Amino acid sequence: MKLQLNDSSLLQTQAFINGEWVNGDAGETFPVSNPATGEVIAEVASVGAEETARTIDLAEAAMSAWKKLAPAERSGILERWYDLIIENTDDLAAIMTLEQGKPLFEAKGEVMYGASYLKWFAEEGKRIYGDVLPSPGDRRSIVIKQPVGVVAAITPWNFPNAMITRKAAPALAAGCSILLKPAAETPLSALALAELSKRAGVPAGLFNVLPTKSSSTVGGEMTSNTKVKKLTFTGSTPIGKLLIKQCADTVKRTSMELGGNAPVIVFDDADLDLAVKGALASKYRNSGQTCICANRLLVQEGIYDQFVEKFAAAVKEFKLGHGFDEEATHGPVVSKKALSDIDAIVQNAVEQGANVVAGGKPSELGNCFYEPTILTDVNDKMSIFGEEIFGPVAPVFKFSTEEEAIAMANDTEFGLASYVFTQNLGRIWRVSEGIEYGMVGVNETAISSEVIPFGGVKESGQGREGSKYGLEDYLETKYICMGGL
Length: 485
Fold this sequence. Notes:
The chain has helices at residues 49-66, 71-87, 89-100, 104-124, 162-174, 187-200, 215-224, 237-248, 272-284, 304-315, 336-351, 402-410, 425-434, 467-472, and strands spanning 15-17, 20-22, 29-33, 40-45, 131-133, 140-147, 150-154, 178-181, 207-209, 228-234, 253-257, 262-266, 294-300, 355-358, 373-376, 393-399, 417-421, 439-442, 461-462, 475-482. The protein is built from 14 helices and 20 strands. By secondary structure, the protein is α/β, with parallel strands linked by helices. Residues 21-480 form the Aldehyde dehydrogenase domain. One of its GO terms (biological process) is gamma-aminobutyric acid catabolic process.
């Protein structure tokens, strides 16, 4: 389909380096496709290591003036970028739906969510405080905060707008410059944001977008270049581990938001309708392609059958379709490979004894559509218990006691998001403190916003994004001792 935009200049296909639109040195491109149809949307410029190295030099030079600006001046520019994103929400959402596949209403929600980080950090950047520590009379001990330096960011395809602003906003607010490698599946959203950053007055060299068909080449330069002081990454745990190893040689700061295996724990005393509603929203948002989506539904035995009945009735009301179909509630997964991986997990679970209550197979709509699926008769000995599904598949496990639920929830190397449904106040505290996750939603699954510290523990990563804590990840603490007073 042909994309109709109010502002066609938001659809860019070149790299954005030092405030200019440029091709890669070799003139190479790679295709970006619509997962709903398989149609190639655009050919996008592909850069390599040499362009990345030059961008790092330019980012370092641009930062020298940026970090000296008054925080209020930096704030004003971020505010203008925010305003432009809001003004262009429809176009940004249309671009996202075309390249990523999520329904248009969901894409608009992500654009608004992504913009909120610019608004938040525009204000939070004014509140970078230091300290004067108690000291002997002839000296003063002072602590100041300074920008960490040039930041490299690698962002995923599942949230191609918000995962960029969540990194760029605090970096710029802190006084850093940033270069971004977007996912090859969804570079158009990143390039549209770059166009708006230029209009907002973000000085050249401070925000750069490097699309590439060779992630390892660009990523390798980012991790090895000594001028890059911090790497921030959202993606899979195996790739995150590799990047951490690569950053070790130059002892870079890292922020890692990695894989998840989120449990939704539903106790007998839960508000059942609320639990079903929350689990549905968490599991099937973006067709199950979120790092914090419900990956394991753990339901206490006393309400297990009732929960499954209500849950299945709601899932059967879903409507798969192209993102621009106003009746569609859910779109495609991102690629044929993703669908193949999802189906392999489902079929393996069935072979091990799982029962398909809904879905369970690819849809006839197209190569990237998978039916919203529910599996019962699953247990913690099956491989699906430990797998990050990243698709519209909900395995529903049964447990007996509170202690068993906590043990099941913790039986994973991941520790990003978790959810608990219960009306018992004591249980809320016991379970929230007992499960090993960076984030816990109690009687709520919509837990993410710009004001909270988003991040995980164990192999789900390190660092936090959003909130005042997210700004700290882009600052260094310097101690100054003033003697002879």
